TrEMBL record:
<dbReference type="InterPro" id="IPR000182">
    <property type="entry name" value="GNAT_dom"/>
</dbReference>
<dbReference type="Pfam" id="PF13508">
    <property type="entry name" value="Acetyltransf_7"/>
</dbReference>
<protein>
    <submittedName>
        <fullName>N-acetyltransferase</fullName>
    </submittedName>
</protein>
<dbReference type="GO" id="GO:0016747">
    <property type="term" value="F:acyltransferase activity, transferring groups other than amino-acyl groups"/>
</dbReference>
<dbReference type="InterPro" id="IPR016181">
    <property type="entry name" value="Acyl_CoA_acyltransferase"/>
</dbReference>
<feature type="domain" description="N-acetyltransferase">
    <location>
        <begin position="7"/>
        <end position="154"/>
    </location>
</feature>
Length: 177
């Protein structure tokens, strides 16, 4: 088990690109589209660069987390969490948690009202995520309700509602084959 004090979270640098793309391929095996998403997000204005985070243990990149800006029909800008991946050998050793806590701490002092994500319902509630549909936050496509989750930040109000428009880097994922 990794000593949590040895997990260093910092912004991704260009010298990390190869490692984070390899990480996406390994964590999301056999789906190579996440590595492609990582490349598209990096090249996009929608990326929240302060939240393009890697987790490093000794000299190795073992986790990667990205956020981008999404719009909702009420006019607000939201923080969209995707992707979050940890190298298989390093999973369940609190690396994902270290990345999540770093990002949420930053977001709590930001103007963003809400974080949204599509993710496993067994993981994200431990950080305070709740089902997004009951808040009036809807995805732009059909999703199992339990995977569509939101985290209310200090800037949240019930005026934040409607349908979420994903930024352009996600378009290729939602085109029917
Ligand atoms: C999901 C993922 C990011 C979690 O990162 P991680 O570093 O393994 O998670 P952590 O060690 O921080 O987990 C914290 C707690 O959640 C639990 N947990 C981890 N993954 C879980 C999962 N998929 N479902 C439910 N609980 C999970 C851990 O056992 C741990 O429990 P504990 O506090 O009782 O010890 C990582 O396992 C991963 O990369 N998976 C493959 C890619 C993926 O599915 N990404 C997310 C898409 S939604």
């Amino acid at each position: 088990m990794i000593d949590p004090l040895t997990i260093h979270v910092r912004q991704e640098q260009s010298s990390d690109h190869q490692a984070t793309e390899a990480l996406a391929l390994a964590a999301f095996d056999p789906d190579p589209r996440v590595a492609e998403l990582v490349r598209r997000l990096r090249a996009s204005d929608s990326l929240i660069t302060e939240l393009n985070l890697v987790a490093q243990v000794e000299n190795r990149i073992v986790g990667h987390l990205m956020f981008s800006r999404a719009r909702i029909t009420s006019g607000h800008e939201l923080a969209l969490l995707s992707p979050l991946g940890v190298l298989p050998k390093f999973q369940r050793q609190h690396i994902g948690s270290a990345l999540m806590l770093h990002a949420l701490t930053w977001l709590k002092t930001s103007p963003y009202p809400l974080v949204i994500l599509e993710g496993v319902p067994s993981y994200y509630p431990r950080f305070g995520f709740v089902a997004a549909h009951p808040l009036g936050i809807n995805p732009p496509f059909d999703l199992p309700p339990a995977v569509w989750q939101a985290y209310r930040l200090p800037a949240y109000s019930t005026q934040v509602r409607g349908m979420v428009h994903y930024p352009e880097p996600f378009d290729f994922l939602h085109i029917e084959p």
